[in-house]
Amino acid sequence: MTEKLSLYELQLMIRDSLYISFPGMYWVIAEISEVKENSTGHCYLELIEKQADDKNVRARIKAIIWCKQYRFLKSYFENITGEKLREGLKVLVRIKIEYHELYGLSLIICDIDPAFTVGELAMKRQHIIRQLEEEGVFSMNKELGLPFIIQKLAIISSAGAAGYTDFMNHLINNEFGYVFYTHLFESPMQGSDTEQGILNALGRISGYQDLFDAVVIIRGGGSQVDLSWFDNYNIAYYITQFPIPVLTGIGHDKDMSVSDMVACVALKTPTAVADFIVSHMLAKENRLMEMLVEIKDLTHTIVEKSRNRLETAGIRLPPLPRILLSAVKEQLAEISMRLIRSGNEQLRIASLLPGGQTSRLPGVIKTFLLSRRTSLELSAKILAPESVKLLQKRKSELDFFQKNLDLLMPENVLRRGYTITYMNGHVKKTIDGLAPGNIIETRFIDGKISSRVMEDEKE
Fold this sequence. Notes:
Layout: H1 7-21, E1 26-37, E2 43-50, E3 57-65, H2 67-81, E4 90-100, E5 104-112, H3 114-134, H4 140-144, E6 152-157, H5 162-172, E7 181-186, H6 194-206, E8 214-218, H7 224-227, H8 233-241, E9 246-249, H9 258-262, E10 265-267, H10 270-316, H11 319-352, H12 355-407, H13 410-415, E11 420-423, E12 426-427, E13 439-444, E14 447-452
Parallel strand pairs: 3-5, 6-7, 6-8, 8-9, 9-10
Antiparallel strand pairs: 1-2, 1-4, 2-3, 4-5, 11-12, 11-13, 13-14
Helix pairs in contact: 2-3, 5-10, 6-8, 10-12, 11-12
């Protein structure tokens, strides 16, 4: 072909060929990779199609929605889907092909099917949930349970968010005067940077996990569109793997995101999270008070048992030395009787001996009696100190019991920081019988105070 064409003529030929080959309109499935609203009201998009790995792009083209059509389609799409046209959405659009000699090939969007996008979002959400369940991690953060005290909090939010301000106000100004220690790890809470921001914040917290009792992810109110940023596999998976409980208050009354579903505790708003933490602290305080009453009751029981044992010991101990001395006397008397009987026997035998033996018998008897007397004196010397030692030992035991009894006396218990609560003159061991408005009296070592019951909650 020897005919020479100008560039403009070539462009016209391409345009005419396209119009002839694609004269009508077509429904096309694509993903939005870029959206820009022009000051004139036109909407410029970039549509892509990804390969099966959902990462690499296999096709890309520009698209336009003219301003008059855009005003209608935008409102229509958002009302049905609850989503704005944004990056990452899959859409089904009705297009016609346009080729301009200056701007090249583009698609003119004339209509959008919102039902297709709703289905795609639901499928994506269900796919994430199913994947987490198949991996066996869906409920891992819930299984951690909450610590007994939630006082040190790592907060993921935007510093300028109204939800963060409301959360801190509720937490700091709680009516019970609880003190909380918080640290903010800033992150975008909407838009395409949400995923990376939250993952970075969780990564920073994991380096200091021993310093915190729980992680709180909160944001203020917003449209239904903003909730979809938390239907994210990477965020949800990181939450399931986190070593301390995660509480969420993303700010939606109706729906829960996947991130809410996998968190240890999910609440609707930031203020609801703050109220939950305060209520948790109140419940644990009440439990501690119940334990204190139980300890006091147990201590009283131990004191009473010890007192009874001491009284019994005091009754039984005084006669013991007399009993021991009486037993020793009986033993001495028995020994004396045996000696007398033995002496008489020796005398009888001596009377039967020849004269020479008879003359030596008194000396033998005298020697025998002297040795027995020495043995008796030695036994008496040993017995007296042993009796004294036994009495001293019993006295030491009595002194020990008395010291323990003094330590367990109610006055000394009060000195160690415990208190006793009365109502109508009676000691209250549990919250049974207490009701809002009741007046109770709390006794300390140096005085007493009266209080009015505002609220009771039994665990």
